[in-house]
Design brief:
- This protein has helices spanning about 30-35, 45, 70, 75-85, 90-100, 130-150, 155-160, 165-170, 175-185, 190-215, 220-245.
- By secondary structure, it is mostly helical.
- The longest helix has 26 residues, at about 190-215.
- The radius of gyration is 16 Å and the shape is globular.
- The relative contact order is 0.20.
Length: about 250
Amino acid sequence: MGAERIGRKNTEVSKKPEKGCSFKLYTTLAGFAIIYAMGYRGLTEITSLQGEVNLPKTKEKISGVFAPGVRHWSTQIRKWAKEYDLPPNLVATVMQIESCGNPLAQSPDGAAGLFQVMPYHFEGNEDPLNPQINARRGLNYLRWIWDLSDRNLAATFAGYNGGPKAIEWILENITEEGYINFLISKDWKQENAEAKSKQVQRFIRWGTGILNDIENGLNPSPTLNEWYNAGGVSLCGDAEDVLGLTPTPTPIP
């Protein structure tokens, strides 16, 4: 729920959901590289995916498209999905994009753990890197965003990455400029606000695209391969090192 975490070593939910997720942006080279890696296909393409994926409920198995680091958590993902009444593959997709299953993942903006939860969502002496605590905070927030978005997938991914204002961008047809101006009103620099808007769009496209691929029986997932080629292989390498797993095969360009 922080900035995109692509690249090795760049490797919520919230009691107070009104704070939303972080609007901070990476200042690392890897962070800036991913800002431009996927390009921009436009909000029309993204919003055309809204609500188009049929997501079965909690008896659903975790898809085999996910990286080994995510599949490592399959049993826990199903338990967490049941507890928060979320589709398991939605939970797995968020984990894939955020940490690739690395429980020790940390970003320069402070996001931590499996679901990259920002520090202000934790209480007292809670350990952000404890998988159970991290999932509790992250999935509480995801569930809140899921409901706030009226279970619209594009809006859910937008809200998880970009905060509640990004949900309005999708559901209420505020413009990209309106979203950027909102960030600027929160003391963002113009160039960072513009980059963040593109980042939110990629998070939407990756998230909805992976779930569409699963729904259409595509394995490997073409969208997930795009994510790997944008730097995700390195992120997953960190996860596999930590978990002692077989490395993710290099995707076909």
